[in-house]
Every structure is written in C-alpha cells, then in structure tokens.
Write a structure and sequence with these properties.
The complex is a heterodimer of chains A (447) and B (510). With 447 residues, chain A is α+β, with helices and mostly antiparallel strands. Chain A is 42% helix and 19% strand. Chain B has 2 domains: 202 residues, Cytochrome Bc1 Complex, Chain A, domain 1; 252 residues, Cytochrome Bc1 Complex, Chain A, domain 1. Chain B is 43% helix and 15% strand. Classes of the chains: A alpha+beta (447), B alpha/beta (510). The interface between A and B is large, with 74 and 83 residues.
Chain lengths: 447, 510
C-alpha cells in the first residue's frame, strides 16, 4: 500500500496577489507528496504554465558521502556514469530519446546531493520520460572499459577550471579548515583521486548499491501535468526498485582549537584573494541559529552593507566582498571572501572583516535594517520562482535538505522570528578567532 | 474582482492593438521604439532598455569606452543619488540593474516584483536618464575594467581567453576586434569627459528600444516611453562594417603561458546571419556537428565520449553566449557572424592530436555532409529544444526583440515553420557553401608554444594513450589516421606570443 500524504497548502498564487507578508506563504504553490513502499518519495507541483515539465531526480548523495580515503570526487564521477544507459536502453538509444524529445537535460553534483533533470515540452511525453528515467536508475549498466573511458573526462573537467584562482582558494580553504569531515574536499575531488578513477570499477558498483536506491532518492516533478497520471506512471515503473537501507556515517568534525592560516602562491598575475572562515551549524528549519546567521551575512556583507560600501565603493580596496553561509546537511563553513585590488591591502581587509564581526557581537542591528533584509530574501525567492524550472530548481535544493517542500516556508517563518538579540548571540557563538581559518592567494610574475 | 480582471484584459487588448498599429506605421529613426509583452496576472515585470550602440561604436584610441560609459549608469550614482544610496534603496526590493554590452547593442535590464515596480522604476529611470558621472564611480569602474583586462582575462579564465583570441584573429583591424572591455592602453586613456561625451552622443531616442514584459498595468508603457522621450531626438547611424578577412590557410595564434591544460578555439567568418533563408539549413549542420553542451554534438561524441579527452567540444554558426542553463542568451545581435569550434581544455600532451581530430572531422563534414538519419534526428531535436528557449520574462522579451532585429515577427515560430520544409540536400548545400576546412583561424593557449609550433610545422605524429587498455578497435584504427593526419601550415602562419602581451592595445600583439 502506498503511504499517501496530501498537503493542501493554502493556494496562494503569486499571480493573484501581492507578495505575502506572512512567511508561511513564501512558497505559494500547492504540492503533493507520496511515498512508494520501497521508500521512493515523489513531490509533485502542478503549475499553470503551459507545455513545460521539469522532471528532477534527487539522489541524496554528494561529496559528503565520500568518507573513505581515496574516494574524493566519486559522487561527481558516478553522476557521469549515470548517463551510460541500460541493457534495455543503451547509451546511444538513451541519447537519441532525449535528443528527439529536445529536452534540456543534465546532472550536477553538490556537497550533499546529486541531481538529474529532464526539462521538456509536452505533457504527452511524460509517460515515456518516467519509464526511461526509471529504467536508467534501476537498471544502469556499464562495464569496466566504459568506466575507464569516462574517468579521464573528469580530469578534463578539472582542467576546464584549472586557470581559476577561486577554485584553488576554495579547495585550500576546505582542506585547511576541515580535519575529519568529508566536506574537506570539493565535489570535483583531489586531483590524485581523479587520476585514480579508472581503477575504481568495483567501488563504483558498491557506491551504486549503497546510494542509488529508492530510499535515498526523491523525484520532484513541476509543471504542466496531472498528478494522478504522474503517480500511475511512477508506480508502474519505479515499484521494482530495491531499497538499500544503507546508513551512512559521516565523520564528526572535532572543534577547532586554534586559528589556522594558509597561503597559495598563484604562479601568474592575478588579483589577490582572501577568505576568512568559521565553522557554522548545519541547515535547520527548527532552530534559530542558521536563520540568524543568514540574516547576519546580509547585514554585514551584502551590497548595501556598511562594510561593502566602505571597502568596495568608498575606499575601493576590494573588487568584491561576499559572505557565503551555505545550507548543508552537516555543519559547514561560514565564509567571508574578497577579491582585493592590491596584495599589500590583504592584511587590512582581513582586519576589517574581523572588526565587523566583533562589532556585530556588541552592537544591536537596527530593526528597520532587519526588516529590509527579510524583504530582500522574500523578493529574491519570488524572482527565482518565476518559471517552472525556477520552481523545480529552487525546490530541489530544499528537498535535498529536508525531504519536504514545507521546509522553505518553515525557514522563512524562522527568518521572521529573528531578532537583533539573536544576531548578536550567533555572532558571539560562531565568530571566535580560535576557530577561524584564513586563506590568502596572490599572484606571481609568471605568464 | 472579476470586473477588474475584465477591465485589465480590455486595457491590454487596447494597448496591444496600439502596439500592433504602431509597428505598421513608418518608424521615425529619430524616435524611440517599444517592444511590449503584456502577461496579465504575472507578478513580475521585466524591463529592458536596449541601445543600438555597443563596443564597435568606441572611438579609435578609446576602445572600452561604451562599456565604461554604460557601466557608469548601471553601477554608478545618479545626479541626486550616490551609488551607495541606490544600493540601499534597491536592497529591500532585491532589485538590481544588469548590463550587457556587445559589439553593436547594449542592454540595461531588471526584473522586479509588481509590489515594487513604481519605486524601482523611478530609480532605474534616473540611473539611465540623469546619471551622476561622479569621479569616484569613474575611478572604481575604470580600475575594475583594467584589472579584468590585465589580470583576470589572460590569467584566470582560459576558456574565455581562447575565445577572445579567436575574436581578435577574426576581426583584426575591424570594429569588432576587441573585448567590449577594450584594451589596457585605451581604457587607461579614457577620461570622465570622454564618458560624458559618449553618453551625450549616443543616449538619444532613436537608439533606444524600450522593452517591457510581465504583469504591468496598461498605462505603464506610455509612462516609460514618455520618460525616455525626454532624451534628445536623433540616432547613431548603423555601422558600415568592413568585410571580414578570411584566413589564408590554417593560421595559428598561440598564447604561451604556464598551464597544464590547452584551450583551443577556431573559426572563420560566415556571410549569413539569422536573417538569411540559408541560416536554417546551416543551423542543422552546426547543431549536428557541435550543439552546445548536448550529447547530440558529433565533436562531443568523438572527442569526449569516445576518447575521454576533455569536458566538451562544440561548434556554432553564429556568435554564441550561454544564457540560463545551456540556452542561447538573447540581445547579442550582430551584422556579421562567424563559424567556430570550441575545444574545452585538455592535457597539453594531447593538444596536437585533438587539433588534428577537430580539423579532420570538419573536413569530413564538408566533404561528406550530414548523414540522412542524423539530419532527421537533429531537425526533430531543434524543433523540440527551441520550445524551451523562451521561459523567463527576460528570455521571452529578448527573443521577441531579436526576432524583430533579424526581420521576423517571431523567430521561434518561424523555426517551427521552416525546419519541417528543409531537406538533407538543403543542409549539405549550405555546408558546401558556407563551411570549409582549409582556411581557419586557430587560437591556442598552451605551455611551451614553440614545441607545438614545431610539431605542427613538421607534422610530427601525435599518438595518444588511454587509461582503458581495451579501447574499441575501430577507435584505435581511427586514431592511427588522426595521429598522422597531415596539416598544411606555413611557418609564417604560426605565431607564438606570451599570454601577458594580449589586450594591452588593439590588434594582434608582437
């Protein structure tokens, strides 16, 4: 029997009303969640936009799952292997099907999940898409030679961004800040592990068995379709998929006891870079910390913030200044970063960032500033939800975190509750110098 | 509520009819025009102010002026507000003004929720019509532009760097020859007075297309048009461009730098654009040969899928900028176009092999044409894929504007009409007419460029090895042909230049 959960959110069409002032309504669309007996969860969001359907498969496995030595980058590598077809629908036939459909299709891998999407026109194509996607997730087939041919593509992907100092900065930051947790490496992985991927056929089979299973996967379908018709197809084609019941244990990151620092000498000319990071909390739509930190990031580092205005606009020491507090399933980093204009200004900009964080511990944020930030977050979200694929792409991220679209409204509910005192409290709790990591990068004279 | 809706619908009908009748009237070139896309009930509004002016309008010696001038509007203060004040006002609305500058057009745009339209538009209008031209904004934005040219472009983004070198080869001595950011020497020479003069010369009504899409009220377009009609009448004459120089043989320009990976872009001018009937046939050929970031691309199949050489390999029959997802961005219309192949970075050790492979595949395309089954497949693909092109308000309005630029009522609708009528013979005829494999500009960014030059001139065999010890026999057999595939190149057609010397001043360095 199917477990059926119907969530009848108050239908609050963006198209019919001004932006809701109450946070519970920031995601205005009606949706349904169903779960098959094998644990496959299906989130369907029928939308009034004609023609387009976004079909997302969210596998809750990303670089976070790469807990074993030598396996960094494997989630991303496996994403590539997922396009190899099945015995029933081999790669060439799969490609031809998508080509004839004229679908926008791809996959992407993140810290926490791997997402595959097929965006296509015409509801008459839905049944065939469900059948084909179910087949490749249940019956993926490739041999060792196919894996050995695909592995160097990852090396090529590594080369595609090898000239980017920002990537190097991010790699060094994670590697320095984390000791144990698999967030220590990027989704692309260490180059040494990428070069070893041709030898990982057996592990790839184990990886599939552990993580590419219905109890670790969520289907998200948004657009022009009928929910009951969709579910009939899903039951028909996905019910034979076997559960995994594998329980991943990610290593716990020990508390950082002393400040860390690293520098990367970029061989050629470049504008210098700076990153200042602290360990933060995991995503939560229940406790206030992460929500308060999200607002803090905006208060102190958005384009309208005093520090941005000072360093970027007035003093013109920096070309960019950002705060990045990504939402992740496990505790991640709270990072402040800047592209600085002159090498000699790196210490000054670092000092200004720390000074701003100290200020936030002692000075209460004006209430009207807090209101501006809450307004910004709501309108930013409304802009993202302007198309079918905008709805699907945005919701895929939140569903990965909480397995439930309702988390978005709960998160915005928390934003509404954040007070100036909460901001001060999280500033004191998380921005402790001994738990900081500072990374700098500056250019050389080479060509 | 229902009554209100009906009134709105009538309003849209009325203004829609006005827009239609306006398009039938003769357009006064001294006055602005408008592109409207009303979508009743949509909570968002997208505004575009398109100027029929771009980097090709830069005066000689001031290359980069259009971008710096327009950036002063999009990222600088107005006469009454500093940029800091604008940022503060925009923030609660999650608003911003985006700027795209290309060779012959530039676009200011913004998407806003209808709750905030009035407040946003008041500032947007002031930014464009009453700019502050402050010294501090000028210093900041000119420094950023110089940093991009001196450091970022040549050192931090090799894929883009390769495309810009190809652009330089295609258009050396031509108004298209440089990145819209200009060159180091010319941007350093730009003064605030230059910026003010450029604005005064080109911010005139006839250069402007006002674009509005989404759930705006029926009277909003008249208001916007009225405001922008405050600009002086006049227009910048459409540029009379010199003919593009066709490469004489295989011409290489190699940027030498420390790098483990080689980036390659190659191409040649094509004489047609989207306006021409032959475009549709050539488009099928281009899509078959190298559709952007799709498995259907033949180059992708041969270089990445079969051999795992790099992340992707594509080809284009017109200038291509990736927009949302992998779809083409809009509002990059040009009078002159070019064919290009983009080989994404690959290990230096395999560079010679892949250059040979790409050129050999191009030769096969020109000599053998498109196979019947691929013709049918790619045509079906394009008929369906183009249905996804216009989803956001920005995209929908952008395609509408581009359609009109190239002389169509609705280019995407035209695709649905034209493609089914094409035959394989039409495509092969277009391939023969517009593509070639003997005369190409080839831009390469690599390490030890001199050794590549020697290998190219001497036609040194360039075998590659694979991680897979059991590569299919047909691939290994084909590799034997590719690794010895002869390229006829004259020594004077290979130039190796240190990467840091690019874009210091207009023209090919050295």
């Amino acid at each position: 029997m199917l477990k059926f959960i119907s969530i009848g959110l108050a239908l609050f069409l963006l198209s019919a009303s001004p932006l809701p002032s109450q946070a519970s309504k920031v995601f205005p669309y009606e949706y349904k969640i169903e779960e098959l007996e094998n644990g496959l969860k299906v989130v369907s969001i029928p939308l009034p936009n004609p023609h387009i359907i976004s079909y997302y498969t969210i596998v809750r496995s990303g670089s976070r799952n790469e807990v074993e030595p030598g396996k960094s980058g494997f989630a991303h590598f496996f994403e590539h292997m997922m396009f190899k077809g099945t015995k029933k629908v081999p790669r060439a036939s799969y490609d031809e099907f998508l080509t004839r459909l004229g679908a926008g299709t791809n996959g992407y891998t993140t810290d926490d999940y791997t997402c595959y999407f097929v965006v296509f026109a015409g509801r008459e194509n839905l049944g065939k898409v469900v059948e084909t996607e179910a087949d490749r997730f249940i019956n993926l087939y490739y041999d060792e030679e196919m894996l050995k041919t695909e592995a160097p593509v990852i090396e090529g992907e590594y080369y595609a961004s090898v000239s980017s100092p920002d990537r190097r900065l991010a790699e060094l930051l994670r590697d320095t800040a984390f000791e144990k947790h698999s967030y220590k490496h990027t989704t692309l992985g260490y180059l040494r592990d990428i070069l070893d991927m041709p030898h990982q056929f057996e592990y790839s089979q184990l990886y599939k068995q552990r993580f590419y299973a219905p109890d670790n996967t969520i289907l998200l379908i948004a657009g022009d379709f009928d929910h009951d018709e969709l579910m009939a197809y899903v039951r028909k084609y996905y019910s034979s998929w076997q559960r995994s019941d594998y329980a991943l244990v990610t290593p716990e990151e020990p508390p950082q006891k002393a400040p860390k620092r690293a520098h990367y000498p970029w061989p050629t000319q470049t504008l210098p870079r700076l990153a200042v990071a602290f360990h933060g909390p995991a995503y939560s739509d229940e406790t206030i910390d992460k929500a308060a930190l999200d607002l803090l990031a905006e208060i102190s580092f958005s384009r309208s913030s005093p520090l941005y205005q000072k360093l970027v606009i007035e003093e013109q020491k920096c070309q960019t200044l950002n705060a990045s507090f990504p939402d992740r399933r496990d505790p991640h980093l709270l990072t402040f970063s800047s592209i600085v204009k002159k090498d000699e200004d790196l210490p000054y900009v670092e000092e200004e960032i720390f000074k701003e964080l100290e200020r936030l511990k002692t000075e209460a944020v004006p209430v009207d500033q807090l209101a501006d930030i809450k307004s910004n977050l709501k309108y930013s979200l409304a802009n993202e939800l302007g198309t079918t694929d905008g709805v699907a792409g945005t919701m895929a991220f939140y569903i990965n975190l909480a397995t439930d679209p309702g988390t978005l409204n709960r998160l915005f509910g928390l934003y509404e509750k954040v007070t100036p005192e909460d901001i001060q409290a999280v500033a004191r709790k998380y921005f402790v110098k001994t738990a900081s990591t500072v990374i700098t990068l500056s250019g050389g004279k080479g060509q | 509520m229902r009554k209100m809706t009906n009134l709105w619908a009538l309003g849209f009908l009325f203004f829609g009819l006005l827009a239609t009748s306006a398009s039938c009237r003769r357009v006064n070139p001294n006055q602005l025009t408008a592109e409207l896309l009303p979508l009743e009930g949509n909570p968002l509004i997208h505004l575009k102010i398109l100027l029929k002016v771009g980097s090709a309008n830069d005066p000689a010696g001031k290359e980069g002026l259009a971008q710096l001038t327009f950036n002063m509007l999009a990222n600088g203060g107005t006469r009454t507000m500093t940029f800091k004040e604008i940022s503060k006002k925009f923030y609660p609305m999650a608003a911003s003004v985006n700027l795209r500058v290309d060779k012959e057009m530039s676009v200011f745009s913004g998407t806003i929720h209808r709750d905030n339209l009035e407040k946003f538009y008041a500032i947007f209008k002031e930014m464009l019509l009453d700019p502050g031209f402050r010294e501090e904004d000028f210093a900041r934005l000119r420094t950023n532009q110089l940093n991009f040219l001196e450091k970022t472009l040549i050192s931090n983004m090799d894929e883009q760097f390769g495309k810009e070198i190809l652009n330089l080869m295609l258009y050396n001595g031509h108004p298209y020859s440089y990145h819209p950011a200009g060159t180091v020497e010319t941007v350093a020479s730009i003064t605030l007075d230059d910026v003010k003069a450029f604005y005064k010369e080109h911010a005139v009504q006839g250069n402007i297309i006002v674009g509005i899409a989404g759930g705006y009220s029926p009277d909003f377009p008249a208001k916007v048009k009225g405001d922008f009609a405050a600009l002086p009448e006049g227009f910048t004459p459409r540029l009379s461009l010199p003919q593009q120089r066709f490469p004489a043989g295989l011409e290489f320009l190699i940027a030498d730098k420390q790098t483990p990976a080689t980036a390659i872009s190659m191409g040649f001018p094509v004489s047609i654009s989207r306006s021409d009937d032959d475009f549709f046939a050539l488009w099928i050929a281009g899509s078959h040969f190298g559709e952007h970031r799709q498995h259907v691309s033949l180059l992708f199949q041969k270089i990445r899928e079969e051999r795992g050489q790099n992340y992707g390999d594509y080809a284009y029959i017109e200038h291509f900028i990736q927009g949302r997802d992998k779809f083409p961005a809009t509002n990059y219309c040009r009078q002159q176009q070019y064919f290009s192949i983009w080989i994404r970075p690959l290990a230096n050790s395999n560079r010679h092999f892949v250059i040979r492979q790409a050129l050999r595949e191009l030769r096969r395309l020109v000599e053998e044409g498109i196979p019947e089954e691929r013709f049918e497949l790619v045509r079906t693909y394009l008929l369906n894929y183009t249905r996804l092109y216009a989803q956001t308000l920005d995209e929908r309005l952008g395609w509408q504007m581009d359609s009109h630029y190239y002389g169509y009522k609705d280019f995407l609708a035209e695709v649905q009409t034209r493609l089914p009528k094409l035959t394989r013979e039409d495509v092969n005829r277009a391939i023969k007419k517009y593509l070639n494999f003997n005369n190409l500009h080839i831009a390469v960014i690599t390490q030890d460029g001199e050794s590549l030059k020697r290998a190219l001139l001497e036609n040194t065999p360039s075998p590659i090895t694979y991680a897979n010890p059991n590569m299919p026999r047909h691939i290994l057999e084909e590799d034997k042909i590719i690794q010895a595939y002869p390229l006829e190149i004259k020594a004077e057609n290979i130039k190796v230049v240190p990467a840091a010397e690019f874009f210091k001043k207009p023209g090919v360095p050295g």
